TrEMBL record, chains A, B:
<comment type="function">
    <text>Catalyzes the NADPH dependent reduction of L-gamma-glutamyl 5-phosphate into L-glutamate 5-semialdehyde and phosphate. The product spontaneously undergoes cyclization to form 1-pyrroline-5-carboxylate.</text>
</comment>
<keyword id="KW-0521">NADP</keyword>
<dbReference type="InterPro" id="IPR016162">
    <property type="entry name" value="Ald_DH_N"/>
</dbReference>
<dbReference type="GO" id="GO:0004350">
    <property type="term" value="F:glutamate-5-semialdehyde dehydrogenase activity"/>
</dbReference>
<dbReference type="InterPro" id="IPR016161">
    <property type="entry name" value="Ald_DH/histidinol_DH"/>
</dbReference>
<dbReference type="InterPro" id="IPR000965">
    <property type="entry name" value="GPR_dom"/>
</dbReference>
<dbReference type="GO" id="GO:0008652">
    <property type="term" value="P:amino acid biosynthetic process"/>
</dbReference>
<dbReference type="Pfam" id="PF00171">
    <property type="entry name" value="Aldedh"/>
</dbReference>
<keyword id="KW-0028">Amino-acid biosynthesis</keyword>
<protein>
    <recommendedName>
        <fullName>glutamate-5-semialdehyde dehydrogenase</fullName>
        <ecNumber>1.2.1.41</ecNumber>
    </recommendedName>
</protein>
<feature type="domain" description="Aldehyde dehydrogenase">
    <location>
        <begin position="4"/>
        <end position="286"/>
    </location>
</feature>
<dbReference type="InterPro" id="IPR015590">
    <property type="entry name" value="Aldehyde_DH_dom"/>
</dbReference>
<keyword id="KW-0560">Oxidoreductase</keyword>
<keyword id="KW-0641">Proline biosynthesis</keyword>
<dbReference type="InterPro" id="IPR016163">
    <property type="entry name" value="Ald_DH_C"/>
</dbReference>
<comment type="similarity">
    <text>Belongs to the gamma-glutamyl phosphate reductase family.</text>
</comment>
<comment type="pathway">
    <text>Amino-acid biosynthesis; L-proline biosynthesis; L-glutamate 5-semialdehyde from L-glutamate: step 2/2.</text>
</comment>
Amino acid sequence: MSLTNADPLEAAKAARLGSRKLAILPTEDRNAALTAIHAALAEAKDEILAANARDLASATKAAESGVLSQSLVKRLDLGKKGKYEDMLQGILDVRRLPDPIGRIGVRTLLDDGLVLERKSSPIGVLLIIFEARPEVIANIASLAIKSGNAAILKGGKESTESFIAISNVISKALQSTAVPNGCLQLVVTRDAVGSLLSADRYIDLVIPRGGNELVRMVKQNTQIPVLGHADGLCSIYLHADCQIPMAVRVIVDSKTSYPAACNSLETLLVDEDALKTVLPAVAEALLSQGVSLRCDYTSKKALSSTLDKHQAVFLQDASDEDYKTEFLNLILAIKTIPKTETPEKAVDLAIDHINEFSSHHTDAILTSSKSIADRFLEAVDSASVYWNTSTRMADGQRYGFGTEVGISTNKIHSRGPVGLEGLTIYRWIIIGEGQVSMDYGSGAKKWKHQRLPVGDEEAIAQDEEELRMLKEFRAKRMASS
Amino acid sequence: MSLTNADPLEAAKAARLGSRKLAILPTEDRNAALTAIHAALAEAKDEILAANARDLASATKAAESGVLSQSLVKRLDLGKKGKYEDMLQGILDVRRLPDPIGRIGVRTLLDDGLVLERKSSPIGVLLIIFEARPEVIANIASLAIKSGNAAILKGGKESTESFIAISNVISKALQSTAVPNGCLQLVVTRDAVGSLLSADRYIDLVIPRGGNELVRMVKQNTQIPVLGHADGLCSIYLHADCQIPMAVRVIVDSKTSYPAACNSLETLLVDEDALKTVLPAVAEALLSQGVSLRCDYTSKKALSSTLDKHQAVFLQDASDEDYKTEFLNLILAIKTIPKTETPEKAVDLAIDHINEFSSHHTDAILTSSKSIADRFLEAVDSASVYWNTSTRMADGQRYGFGTEVGISTNKIHSRGPVGLEGLTIYRWIIIGEGQVSMDYGSGAKKWKHQRLPVGDEEAIAQDEEELRMLKEFRAKRMASS
């Protein structure tokens, strides 16, 4: 690992070379590297937080003069309660997970003595470009090493102090491990992004972590595949039959628990029948937490007549633009779903709005009806779709991945929170005895195409009893064939 | 399905709308559409081959005057023995395969009453751009419909007649099925590629099927993810201990069975110790099939002293460029791997050459030593890596996928031959009871993250017999509990 001011192309080349060695390191060596990183970061907490405080001070100043957004400042803060501990815990969680590399996914008997296998492998070299969120360095480092990938990290100038502090600690920690030098490249050179994005010879995947301007810039300037999301415009559809306490809890959490996060709620769709029954309690709770409510005509009218006067004065009018906006702040757009002949038609209107305006990141429905929920879960085309829980659940740690390299709204490879599995690909391996293609086909030999066990009984059996049965069944059949 | 001369953006929009309906069609409806396509194409064979013959005649003329490459002409020919039948069989094979959509891949208990599921879904809208190979239309149509994806097909001008003939047949066949109009768009408008490549709002994935110029053009002109390969520079490493008959069979098949194919052999790496033992028989067989051998100094010298004089005169000198060239023709570059202290070091030289010069498509080793083979299989970073079989095995039909949309050298999503699974993605679904993110984390509730059975017997059973057994076992246990 090196913190480099050198030519970014050299960094990329070094990462490529290192990646070949890292890819064949045994599991224990990769886990030992995570242990070393965790210990060093725990040890250096005060020093790193001091560096982060300096970044935070400059950023706050820049935000006051309007140069930087408030939401970026919030994402920068590593001192926020529990954040540093979560970062450390993420490293241990990743270490505990099974090795994602070298797994056989498919095994097929093509013909006698001709076996095809699909075996998981690291992707190669990752380029991660991030703006704020200094904890990303630790997340990426642990996920990359565990999955056998080399990583080049390029931080934004807002987090430079934190970046250098964390980098130095990780760098020193890795020196005593088997991870080859060069596998983690921390680039602080200014203006390095352009040449890194053109290094498709050395880099296999780019993961931008930042606002949508960064993501768009990256997509427009590279032929390397890009994993991530530009926007996080998440919606909740509040069905009229939802219990009030659940609606209040879930919507307040979705909107207020971390407004600068990509999985926070931005648009609330409300059944017309819920405007005077469920919505008032929700609006009251949101207003009391300082959330600005931007309402369409119908919902504003209903709320104005039900809320206390001193609260109702704060209601605002929504513009069309508000339903296309990721506020990343304490603002919520509210839209009424009009009454229809059947409840199904109302769900379809909500689904259509979401498929048209949401960013296909995370969308939820609140209802007590299973059939209504199923319709929604089936038709909403987003990376994560929820019934009766907060949009804030969209997160690698919460999904059980330990931590994440990011959240993807791509329709290929990895979708939603991306952990270890999203950083792997596979190779197809065939072991034969000299068979050739001309042996098969019209009028010649037939393919067998028989699925073979991959030794996965443990993974697929529901319990011990079924496992025993399955193993016996397969053994008996192998013996008789 | 429509064969359109209209605005390509309208075609893309129609495909997007159709895709939403196709995505929720039941399996039987999608299979019935394949039955209809198969019957119609079988019925119309003469008519389609007549159209193909017209394309072939123009292309042959163009090739004679040097405007078109010979390899393109070869790929265009649908009348080649067995090709039409293979195309028809591919449709039936795809129909027979289990439905790739709606499968639960992961089910995790996040907490009591809070369950996360990963469910497979169609990607959405595919854009397939191809030059020759008219059978691609039938392959793509069947794979797309079976996997619930809409597809826009744009053919090259060389295959226009075949394209229109096949399109009309498929179009008529689909009218009697449940597949929504618009789900298959066959674009014959000239110059439509540019606007289709910019339609990232409607199109989720581009699959170029053609020469590397087409692939590079596509990559440079779109922000939509691209699946495929530019080059197919495949290599074989011939280790000194390989039995002569196997070496001859595998190398001749790899080079000569279809030289215009991307999985054909282009570079042969030969152990120095094999130059006068195994290589002469291989060279003799290749020369007698009209293959030009471009040899490095050492291998040419060895062959000159062992081959018959009237054969040796045909040996050519290799230039550096030859080891970077995908000939797609009866030409083979031969390079010597020099003797080293240990056999492992020689393998490493071969691995280094392949990782540097091959196109990471398909590479093979011929050896009788398991440890040598394992070293090679582990370290070669290509989509397909073989031991003792022909590089021509890299093919969706041969892998058991029925047919393929193409072969990918991408390091994300799908690698190698791409069939149904490569045309799917997934959504993450959470079903809760009102739990919110603030309930969990430092000092609050702990996540359970417990793997639950996916109850997906179809996905896990190796074959019909095991599926029956597994379902019976589970049903019996459910009844008794």
